[in-house]
From TrEMBL:
One of its GO terms (molecular function) is diguanylate cyclase activity. Its EC number is 2.7.7.65. It catalyses: 2 GTP = 3',3'-c-di-GMP + 2 diphosphate. This is diguanylate cyclase. The chain crosses the membrane at residues 38-60, 66-86, 98-115, 121-139, 146-166, 172-191. It is an enzyme of class 2 (transferase). Residues 263-396 form the GGDEF domain. Keywords: Membrane, Nucleotidyltransferase, Transferase, Transmembrane, Transmembrane helix.
Length: 437
């Protein structure tokens, strides 16, 4: 939700929001402030009201009227303090018209009562009523109509009290009423201005918060997008496994670690057999499904520390850290079995899948993965030539020959067999446990 800072059109003649929901929200946010202000106003008013008992005494002495006035002052003071206490425990009372207006009524009535009980102190009563009139506007968190009503009662009550018990000359009375009228006008303008300013500030704050929320949401959206893009940049869309670029980053890191720690690192090339036939007979959609299934079955045989990527087309590549060629041969054999064990059933068709795997071990001192990949690829081609659905491991002598700088054994091509032996099914795994045996 986007809010817009309060404009003159948003506020009514009382300086309140025209929108009731917005006004209610504003008042809720002001509740603690209003309660605190009312509490202080009540305590100060109660103290002052009681303190004026001294003036009563100086005017009346220890007379019957003085004791009456004192009793009235004590009652009003107690009621005001009681409301202050109630507001402390229930701040919502500060914004409830009934208790606040009752307190005002009580305090004004008490002040008016001083006129008949102490007619000689009419000037003190007048001054007190002017101060009370200002306080009604400035310190009592009431709405403007209630402030006006309270002041109307105050002026009306003063007129009646003076007419009955302390008549003043016409000019003085007119002056007093003019003074009270001026005070009312000034305070009304001040309080309306204050209301407007408070609401404008509230609206600007709400705007800033809304902008902040939008920015936070945008940031979250961007970082989600960034995460998704990063994932896409590293993942093969069709199979969901690591793509070729990411595979090389991970495998290269493993090669450096293996070189540094003197641990073995094996590479395994995996190629689906007769994949072209699957595509040609059943269509590319079925071919894609087969690719996904083979990728998932291969991955299920690996540990978290192994890296598998799509090399291209129907070919996958696996890096097996901490695995010598014998161990890698065992893992490859299990992958071969996992792929061919269970035929794939798609749309009522039974598809027999198999893969051929070529293994090589990265030799110490090799500065990149390329020689190892080339050997694994040649082993794979040898497996294809041998009839497919098998594992071929590059013999140690061939790899050693390459790493020592001697000329590589001639590789006539895919149809030619490499001098490597297919690992027999169920060959010993050599101290390494796959994730899913
Ligand atoms: N459905 C599908 N087919 C693909 C994809 N990428 C490559 N291919 C197909 O994979 C086939 C690879 O065929 P070949 O390289 O001849 O290999 P093959 O038929 O598996 O034969 P061998 O490897 O010798 O067993 C080609 O027909 C490609 O069009 C792909 O993402 N989806």
């Amino acid at each position: 939700m986007v809010t817009i800072a309060a404009t003159a059109e948003d506020l009514d003649w009382r300086g309140e929001f025209r929108n009731p929901a917005r006004e209610a929200l504003f008042r809720r946010t002001m509740r603690a402030h209003d309660a605190c202000q009312l509490r202080h106003a009540l305590v100060v008013a109660a103290g002052l009201f009681l303190a004026f008992g001294l003036t009563d005494y100086s005017l009346l002495g220890s007379s019957h009227d003085f004791w009456l006035l004192l009793a009235m002052r004590i009652s009003v003071t107690l009621m005001l303090l009681l409301l202050a206490l109630a507001v402390r425990y229930r701040p919502a009372l500060a914004q409830a018209p009934l208790p606040v207006n009752l307190a005002c009524l009580l305090a004004i009535s008490g002040l008016l009562l001083t006129v008949p009980l102490r007619p000689d102190g009419i000037w003190i009563s007048l001054a007190s009523l002017v101060a009370a009139s200002m306080s009604l506007y400035l310190f009592i968190p009431n709405r403007v109509p209630w402030m006006l009503a309270g002041n109307a009662y105050l002026i009306g009550g003063l007129l009646v009290a003076m007419r009955l018990w302390a008549p003043l000359p016409g000019g003085v009375l007119a002056n007093s009423l003019l003074l009270l009228g001026f005070v009312n006008l000034l305070c009304w303008m001040t309080v309306t201005r204050l209301h407007r300013l408070q609401r404008a500030q509230f609206a600007s704050l709400a705007d800033a918060r809304s902008v902040n929320r939008r920015l936070a949401a945008e940031l979250e959206e961007r970082s989600t997008l960034e995460r998704r893009l990063r994932h896409m940049a590293r993942t093969d869309e069709l199979t969901g496994i690591t793509n070729r670029r990411r595979f090389f980053e991970l495998a290269e890191q493993s090669r450096r670690e293996a070189n540094r720690d003197g641990t073995p690192l094996s590479l395994c090339m995996v190629d689906i057999d007769h994949f072209k036939t699957i595509n040609d007979r059943h269509g590319h959609a079925v071919g894609d499904m087969a690719l996904r299934v083979v990728a998932a079955r291969c991955q299920s045989m690996l540990r978290d520390s192994d890296h598998m990527g799509r090399y291209g087309g129907e070919e996958f590549v696996i890096a097996l850290p901490q695995a010598c060629s014998i161990t890698a041969g065992g893992i490859a054999e299990r992958i071969r079995e996992a792929v061919s064990r269970q035929p794939l059933e798609i749309n009522g068709m039974i598809l027999t899948l198999s893969v051929t795997l070529g293994i090589s071990c990265v030799e110490p001192g090799e500065g990149s993965l390329d020689p190892g990949l080339l050997r694994a690829d040649r082993a794979l081609y040898a497996g294809k030539a041998r009839g497919r659905n098998c594992v071929v491991t590059t013999p140690r002598s061939l790899a050693a020959g390459r790493s020592s700088g001697s000329a590589p054994a001639p590789m006539p091509g895919r149809a030619a067999a490499i001098g490597a032996a297919a690992a027999p099914a169920g060959a010993p795994v050599g101290g390494r446990l796959p994730r899913h045996p």
